């Protein structure tokens, strides 16, 4: 009785949010905060409280680059979402 409408998983394996977060470590991500500020960089690690450590971090306010940081730590209660970046900076150039 499980499954629901659509189903289109293809492999039968269910991917949980924890699986997603483990799979994106070391990859470029966008972290959006509740304030609307975006941080883009490489996800170094995160914990169960969604505290995030990033490398090569750039801060964007209203879509404009404001600062660049080598390493950044973001407290989890400020995080609205985490998204993977489809393109790296080299791809966009």
Automatic annotation (TrEMBL):
It is found in: Cytoplasm; Nucleus. Component of LSM protein complexes, which are involved in RNA processing. Component of the cytoplasmic LSM1-LSM7 complex which is involved in mRNA degradation by promoting decapping and leading to accurate 5'-3' mRNA decay. The cytoplasmic LSM1-LSM7 complex regulates developmental gene expression by the decapping of specific development-related transcripts. Component of the nuclear LSM2-LSM8 complex which is involved splicing nuclear mRNAs. One of its GO terms (cellular component) is U4/U6 x U5 tri-snRNP complex. GO terms for molecular function: RNA binding. PANTHER family: SMALL NUCLEAR RIBONUCLEOPROTEIN F SNRNP-F, U6 SNRNA-ASSOCIATED SM-LIKE PROTEIN LSM6. Residues 16-88 form the Sm domain. The keyword rRNA processing applies. Signal peptide: none annotated. Belongs to the snRNP Sm proteins family. SmF/LSm6 subfamily. This is U6 snRNA-associated Sm-like protein LSm6. InterPro entries: Lsm6/sSmF, LSM_dom_sf, Sm, Sm_dom_euk/arc. Keywords: Cytoplasm, mRNA processing, mRNA splicing, Nucleus, Ribonucleoprotein, RNA-binding, rRNA processing, Spliceosome, tRNA processing. GO terms for biological process: maturation of SSU-rRNA; mRNA splicing, via spliceosome; tRNA processing.
